[in-house]
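Ticket reopened. Same input as before:
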Amino acid sequence: MHSLAEAIQARFPDGFLNAQEWRGDLAVTVKREALHEIGRFLKDDPSMACDYIVHVSSVDWPDEEERFEVVYEIYSIRHRHRIRVKTRVPEHDCYVDSLTDIWPGADFMEREVFDMMGIRFNNHPDMRRILMPDDFPEGYPLRKDFPLQGKGWRDTFDFLNEGAAS
Amino acid sequence: MAQLEDQRETIYKVDPAHPETKDLPILRTEELLLNMGPQHPATHGVLKVILDLEGERITKSTVVMGFLHRGVEKLAEYGTYHQFIPHTDRLDYVCAMYNNFAYCRAVEKLMNVTVPERAEYLRTIVAEVQRIIGHLFWLGTQALDIGAMTVFFYTFRDREILLDWFDELCGARLTTSWYRIGGVERDLTASLETKIRDFLAYFPPKIDEYVVFLEKNRIWLARTVGVAVISAEDALGYGLSGPTLRGSGVDYDLRKYESYGAYPKCEFSVPVGKNGDTYDRYWIRIEEMRESIKIIRQCMDQIPKEGPVLADVPSVTLPPKNRVFTNLESMIQQFKLFSQGFDAPPGEIYCGTEAHKGELGFYIVSTGGGKPYRLKIRSPSFIHMGAFDYMAKGYMIADAVTIFGSYDIVMGECDR
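Engineering reply: fixed in the latest deploy. New output:
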């Protein structure tokens, strides 16, 4: 296993779930409850020093019990290493602790995850939609059960009957 | 809302008992809410910012975006990997080539495809030409926002030369789609090589020309020096990248530290600022144009004279067009790649590329099959806007434009 993953496992034996390395990318899956502590450890520990947040993303796995996956990609400028931290969330309890207090840049990125996937973040300063309108009624567009053409108000459009004109 | 109303109605009265002020009329100050955009010429597209003002000072700004949201990430899940290349053109529509490059690199990492050497050099040359175009576009519009109109005409004159060059290369000026997974679409022609060599001689004196316009211009200096200062630590925490991060003194350039293309074979330096203000971000872009010229020159000297420009991996890369029309197997290959796509291995990758705005990354989750299961675009413009409230606090209304101008935002990429 990668040395960084071993360090996380040694420090958080309960929170650590598994680590994968593929195509040179290290991904660590952790328990949702431990995410914030592990984030704090990754930022503050001198051997980690992950001061740069790359992106926050989410993946929908509708057939699995813990349906959503929240992905944080972080980087250390000093040590030049990259870690992807992932955690799973069930649909009925769709909450993750926000990492905004560790990396302030997570603010917009977490809002985007909420907007697109409907995962809410605890202790987030401004948990609103960001790309879709605030009153968007159709749900969360990047979920797998959301159709590509959207749903809702477009079905109520009156289309002109082109054949009737001639 | 009621609380906000109360706040705005607060009336500050002068002490009526004081001998000096007792005859003065009642002064009334209030916090003003100013709505800027989405239809504003200096917002580089459709961005709306709600500014809380105290006099002319910004106390809080709320960014409202999404006016150009087209659901590109959703669309990606419904098409094959090849079909997504034209969508990447429309992310950052002033610099399509670099988006293509970033996306193709991500898919190549997923598919483990090696690009032929000549193609690597061509990709690097075109990417650096695109970087110059991006910086010229930025310089012109940023100067225009600040009120220096002349620079705009000069930078756009030179940008036009390069866009014509793109036109000859791939038939399009802006939405190019020239990169392919595993290489590029077509080789340079002889006349293009001459043209790019001419440009290398022509361009460096022009950079000095722009600098003359700006570097001793009192207005330009007053509007950029010491404006929107952000420390290195904060810039990292906000996830800033590219010239915006390097302006704060952080040496982070993926071309150097996670090198790709032909960059490892070229010598170039990464300009790093000191003060983290708008002026340093401008200075870095000027210096980067000079470095780009160096890189292009080295690539033109080192590039192998002959060789394929597209990897020959039949399960992933497209067959050459002339073979498609004459050879049955190639036609089937082309048909299968476009109708079903190639079979990607299950897994997930993140691949970041140093575009001229910052780190443009693609996070791809594959569960096998021809379509990405999830594709996330890490667009620098979106992430830079996250720092806007922090950076604009305490500056004047007029600076708001120069602050998000200094990120070089393009809303197509910001809203995706």
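The mean pLDDT of chain A is 85. Chain A is about 20% helix and 30% strand. Please confirm and we'll close it.
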